[in-house]
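Let us practice reading a record.
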Amino acid sequence: MSVSTWSAIVGTIAACSSTLAFLPQLLKVRRQGGHDVSAAMLAMYLAGLGLWLVYGLLNRAGAIIGANVASIVLVSAVAILKNQGRRSSRQRTARLRIAIDMDEVMADALAEHLRRYNAAFDVPIAVADLHGRHLEHYIPSEHRAAAEAMLDASFFEQLAVLPDCQEVVRELTADHDVFIVTAAMDVPCSFEAKYQWLQRHFPFIPPSNIVFCGDKGIVDADYLIDDRARHFLSFKGKPLLFSAPHNARETRYPRVSSWSEVRDVFAQLPSDRRSRESSGRRAILTGAAARCGHRQAIAGGAFFRA
């Protein structure tokens, strides 16, 4: 064979090798994502291929034109897959970890407590009377033991759900990791009743995302929605104080007065802020639901940050 023939064979093999070199990379990026592929390298390589294509067009070199068109297609596909993977990664990191208290945030515990107390002592205490005070600080001291005894298992079974709570919590679970965090150690007999109440009204919250504890400072989340400001003192994330009569005079924390306002707070968060907040709190909270008698017993709020 002549030198020109050998030259054509070698050139064809070289063109095919160079053109197909990105095919394995394309398959790998499709399977595993393109995090490790340099965007600058892809941009420079595409620029070089574009110039070679122009060169081939100017010199009417069909082999150069064909090889570079094919290479541009492959490299562009890699760049597109890399960009799609980056967007989906940003969307995943944008999921926030939201911890939500139960009593007087999800469940109307105050209304039930007032109903029982008023019936027991034949008094007309109204919610408005408790502005800035807990019920135990409003009633006579000799009635406090009886009022506390009303917080038995049946008390928690009958609590009404606060307006819009179910709907908004369900919406939040679609975009974020939601945990129910309740200080059940304050009323140890409430474990079973609280768990059953949550299962009845919020069946879409898995048991692994229900946390019974004493100190909510152990909870590793981006936000804590709670009606008691004391739980924010050791909490490392952002607090949202849910309005209740007893916290009316509290001014240290941002406040929400209803579940529609909770919806607005998270709807208005920019996606880049969500990403920064969630990426800053990577420790996994292995939330666990405890049930009296036949589920995991939890003493002294023994849930610890990983």
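A brief commentary: The chain has two domains: 3-93, 97-107+161-279.
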